[in-house]
Amino acid sequence: DRNLNVPLNNALHDDDNQNMEDTLASSQEETISDPETNSVSSSSLSKLDKTLLINAYTIKHGLTVDAVEDLLTLLQLLCENDIDIPRSNYLLKKTLNTDKSMCKRQFYCPVCKGLLGDQSSRAILSTCQGCNQDFTFVSLQTAASFFITFDVRFMIETLLKAKEVASNLHQNLIKRNGCRADSNIHDICDGGFYKLLGISRLDFTCSINTDGVSPYRSSKLSFWPVLISINELDYKLRRQHTILVALWSGNEKPNFDTFFQPLVTMFNELSEVGIQWSYNDENVSSKCYFPLFIADSVARCTVQGLNQFNGKYGCPWCLIKGQSHWMDDNQLRRKWIYKYEECILRTQDQFLQNLETLSTKLSLSDFKEESYKGVKSASQLLLLNRFDIVDGFVYDVMHSSYLGVVKMLTSFWFDSSYHDKVFYLGRRVQLVDKKLTNCRVPFNYDRKIRSIVHRKFWKATEWRTWAFIATTVLNGILPEVYRTHLLKMSNCLMILSDEKITPEDIHFCETNLSLFVQQAEALYGVETCTFNLHILRHAPSCVSKWGPLWGYSAFQFENFNGVLSNLFHGSRKITTQIMTKTLQLVTLFTTSDEVFESELAAEFFESMMQSKQFAKECRKVMGDATFVGPFQKYSFSQNDQRILKDFGIFASIGCNFRKCIIKGKMYCRADQITGKRNNSIVATVDNKIWLIQKLVYINFAGGTGVAVVQRIHGTPNIGNSYLTTVTRIDDAWSIVKLTSISQQRFITIYDDELKYLIRIPNTVELE
User: Fold this and answer.
1) pLDDT for 2 beyond 60
2) Which residues, 6 or more positions from 555, have their beta carbon under 8 angstroms from its beta carbon?
3) Is residue 55 a contact partner of residue 92, using CB atoms and an 8 Å limit?
């Protein structure tokens, strides 16, 4: 009988499970918790512990000053005799003792935007070298004619004080220096250009990103953060520990020559002098380089010193000229297009030659252009050590593919302006929506895709999901010639976003993406020949040079922009607010190391600092697995016990949990599947696919875990290596060890019952 959730107050007679009997005996039927392990007394917390927890709470939830004051008053009322709770917001923040010298205001001329300096000399006046005007620093500060920079050395050294970060970096540096047996690409360190950097064994690199963020819909105000992340860290830590190093705020875009001038100076100092950090109490000296720049097409051209992407020679990686195209017969609308053609690739030497030619031609009276071969100005990044002005800029899959090409094609299919085209699907929206409703994504996936009617509100993550599932959802709806064409791009994007990419994969994507770009004009018309469509051809080359697309996608940095929006309130002195909160976060991060004696308090603090969900009830086992939430008693059948004995586990009962976190990924039982989420499909290391029915903790040999499962059988798709068509699910149940579950995750599509499994190309982005 498979109805195995027997009453929990039954006596347990198995000697091997006596400890579990003690845990279960006092419980009622469903929820069981251990008050000794799931609570902490305020008396066991020091004054520093309490102030750290309160500060972390206020920053995580973006509390205003008034809200913080109310919170402190409430805590004083609830804990009347606790003198450790600060009496005001001022006293609370004073306990952090932030070092404001690690952040500087860099003043610039409000007329020509030239850099004036940081007033380090405490001078009252400053003269602009560009327009020869005098300004007082007081007036510049009043006019908000400044941007802020953080001490990059301090920010990186502070991050490396965290044992987890230092240990991970050191391990990955040792791994990088070893000889990898295969030529496959797994991360940034496997890229061809990365290997040509010629850095020493303990040196590491960082990626740079900048993009505009508009905090208000009713204002032109925007701020432009400069973010960096250490490439040699695991992606999870890379994403958690993105570092803010500069911030520009104003109604206009930054003058990037001014903006990056002090940053390039600090970056070069780190690549020449290096930084000091420690691992296992041993001092380590490393130089830090900045060879990658991640930006969307709008920011990239300005930073690189090229024409806009919608102008002549606007491609950052090749010398395709493009052409102007009228969008209507009346010649009222036109756009710059890039028809398919073979083109010469740019190089840094060629870029510098074009820059010299431009300088010469600008002195000629008959030269009416502002650029030559697209080169418009000398970027500050030309002064950055080990940075290639052409190949240092990487392909941005989020803006160029998901928010670019995929979004454009979808508009062709569903916008009513194309109602007379053979590919128009506007009359079949209800059928498409029905299929989308039957689509479920894993818990760790950012969001469930919404109705196709609401596509103008879709976020980039929804467009990414759509790119992965569109060929399956539109099977039998979109004419096959168009669906096959779409499959070329969809399959290549998934391959280039995988965790293992072979040289054969690169060649396959180069061929198929070239065909996709070439065929787009014939299928949809010349208006598809956009800049985003053209640069899709450069994606395989970028992966060959710098690793998988996820390694440097803008998703990581866009996520941090959400963090920034939580660091200010109102519309006044945004830059100063973000500066103050950032320094407070840095202080929290460094002060909290080895402070908390209570493990539960430390985990709660970490959950707030990293915006994780705090699990009050959990049970950790060997093999990097954690059972979460309430549980019930589970009795194994005789057949189950025989399987367990084959695993070396001797038990007849266990605790059946609803959820389990395995190697950082959440899994659930089949009865926890919702209309939007499905976390019950797993694959084991032998590439078998299973449906989880029970997640069982066994109190044996220090604790272990197994999953009671049903085998899923399916047929792989020839045209799409990530798609499996489900043929049947076994009625018989089996058992797999949690340690045998691989990292593979699936998007599931139902048609009354489970019909399709789409393997997500990588799981590192599912955090």
Assistant:
1) no
2) 398, 460, 461, 765
3) yes
Q: Each residue of 124-134: pLDDT tens digit? A: 778 888 888 88
**Residues 6 or more apart in contact with residue 185 via CB below 8 angstroms:** 191, 500, 501, 502, 506, 543, 544, 547, 548
- Res 614: pLDDT: 54
How far, CA to CA in Å, does 211 sit from each of 133, 224, 247, 318, 724? 31, 6, 10, 23, 38
| pLDDT tens-digit readout, 393-435 | 999 999 999 999 999 999 999 999 999 999 999 999 999 999 9
At 358, is the secondary structure helix, strand, or coil? helix
What is 643-697 written as a DSSP string?
HHHHTT---SEEEEEEEEEETTEEEE-GGG--SSB---EEEBTTS-EEEEEEEEE
* CB 436 within 8 Å of CB 669: no
Q: End-to-end alpha-carbon separation of the chain, Å?
A: 38
User: Is 731 in contact with 688 (CB distance < 8 Å)?
Assistant: no
Residues with Cβ within 8 Å of 261's Cβ and at least 6 positions away in sequence, in order, are: 115, 380
Tell me whether residue 179 is exposed, middle or buried, using C-beta atoms within 10 angstroms of its C-beta: 0 to 12, 13 to 18, 19 or more. exposed
Bridge partners of residue 668, in order along the sequence: 659
Cβ–Cβ < 8 Å for 673, 665:
no
What whole-number distance in Å separates Cα of residue 723 and Cα of residue 717? 6
Q: What is the mean pLDDT of residues 737-751?
A: 91
Element (H, E) at 637: none
What does the alpha-carbon distance between residue 443 and residue 664 come to, in Å, rounded to a whole number? 12
Question: CA 72, 77, 78, 79 torsion: positive or negative?
Answer: positive
Q: Using CA atoms, how far apart are residues 157 and 161, in angstroms rounded to an integer?
A: 6
From CA 248, how far away is CA 256, in angstroms rounded?
A: 10
pLDDT digits (tens, 9 = 90+) for 696-720: 999 877 788 999 999 999 999 988 8
Cross-strand bridge partners of residue 69: none
- Give the torsion sign (CA, 661, 667, 673, 677): positive
Give φ, ψ of 136 to 5 degrees: -95, 145
Q: Which residues pair with 186 in a beta bridge?
A: none
Which pLDDT score, from 0 to 100, does residue 60 have?
Answer: 83
Taking 90 as the threshold, does the pLDDT of residue 120 lie above it? no
Tell me which residue of 685, 679, 700, 678 sits closest to 738, measured CA to CA. 685
Tens-digit pLDDT profile for residues 65-101: 899 999 999 998 888 888 888 889 888 888 888 888 8
Element counts in the chain: helices (H) and strands (E) = 24, 24
Q: What is the DSSP letter of 400?
A: I
DSSP string, 544-582: HHH--GGGG-THHHHHHHHHHTTS--SSSSHHHHHHHHH
On whether the CB atoms of residues 485 and 465 are closer than 8 A, the answer is: no
Is the pLDDT at 48 greater than 70, yes or no?
Answer: yes
